[in-house]
Amino acid sequence: MNVKPVMFGTLAYTLITFPLAVVWHVLMFEEKYKSFGYFQGEPSFLLGFATILIQGAFLSFLYPFVKFSAKGPVRGFTYSLFMGIFFWTSHVLAFVAKHSIHNPVSFVLMESFYLFLQFGIYGVLIGLIYQKWSNQNA
């Protein structure tokens, strides 16, 4: 296995997810997320960054092992849609199940849109990254 697409995929995921998470959860909608009980004290940016790095490495490593009929960005988007649904259930639905939230529908809608952005952009990029490496090795 070529490690370069995994590294570039990890970098892409990290460069998309970390800034998007900070802007979305801390800058744009901080008060809304506090009202959901999403934050207990100050968020740990270092732990969040490490988590995102691990997720990106795992998702980028796994990509070539999951087969879809499409190619390039469409394949990447399909892959990230499936992986995003898994993350959605463990992130959004689990949060709602474990916490008493004043407005759970609002939380689910906001987090669903956020995850769609995150995984949609990553999916297109991971598809392009692996397409480039498969073209170079063909």
Automatic annotation (TrEMBL):
Keyword annotations from UniProtKB, A to Z: Membrane, Transmembrane, Transmembrane helix
Highest taxon, organism lineage: Bacteria
Entry's transmembrane regions: 6-24, 45-65, 77-96, 108-130
Protein name per UniProt: Transmembrane protein
Source organism (scientific name): Marinomonas posidonica (strain CECT 7376 / NCIMB 14433 / IVIA-Po-181)
